[in-house]
Design goal:
Largest sheet: none
Catalytic activity: 4-amino-5-aminomethyl-2-methylpyrimidine + H2O = 4-amino-5-hydroxymethyl-2-methylpyrimidine + NH4(+); thiamine + H2O = 5-(2-hydroxyethyl)-4-methylthiazole + 4-amino-5-hydroxymethyl-2-methylpyrimidine + H(+)
Helix content: over 70%
CATH architecture: Up-down Bundle
Bound molecules: 4-amino-5-hydroxymethyl-2-methylpyrimidine, 2-(4-methyl-thiazol-5-yl)-ethanol
Protein name: Aminopyrimidine aminohydrolase
Shape: globular
CATH superfamily: Heme oxygenase-like
Enzyme class: hydrolase
Organism: Actinomadura namibiensis
EC number: 3.5.99.2
Length: 218
Amino acid sequence: MGFTSELWESGAATYERIRVHPFVQGLTSGDLDRAAFRHYIAQDSHYLREYARALNVVAAKAPTPEGTALFGEHATNANAVERALHAGFLDELGGVDQPASPTTVAYTNFLLATAHTGSFAEGLAAVLPCYWIYARVGADLVDRSSPDPLYARWIATYGGDGFQKIVDDVLTVTDRHAEGLGPAERAAMLHHYATAARYEWMFWDAAHRRETWPIPLA
Ligand SMILES: Cc1ncc(CO)c(N)n1
Ligand SMILES: Cc1ncsc1CCO
């Protein structure tokens, strides 16, 4: 691997914090409070809707038709996952209609702003932790799975070969694209990657705390 190993390194300490987070550990032990998981799924529904938009912006800026097609397909997938997976989980958990939390708003705004104002490379670095960290979390948990069938289903979604293949395609595109980039653009990518990785930790943590706005809307 090329530049993607440097990207992973820029988020490696954060990944270690994600791996041991009580929310993630609770998925595989089965001890995670269902109310925290419901909060997470409801927030992830907001997240994936905006993530799909960010992916379409990355698709629009891709320098090759293959890149445009790849990220366009992934945007469509993210919307499909939002509908299918989440409708399924929320049916079982009891539907929840909660507004996007401060952390969800911050993370999705970061993705959209970086995709819109930055280069293709910058947008790519910002959306990458979402793919890569989830595939790693899935792979880390898949052998132990979970005694809770709902959590086992979540783990299987991200720990399977299907999701890993998607991530591998994106890593290949990233390594190829980075070959032609100078140090300033690479530094920006490392920074965006590390920022999004920290938001990934914050997203788990916000669900664990069941974060809401400190001031309700009037
Ligand atoms: C917050 C978040 N990050 C990554 C993924 C992976 O798709 C997801 N569903 N939600
Ligand atoms: C990263 C990601 N997460 C859910 S869907 C998707 C895009 C690729 O299917």
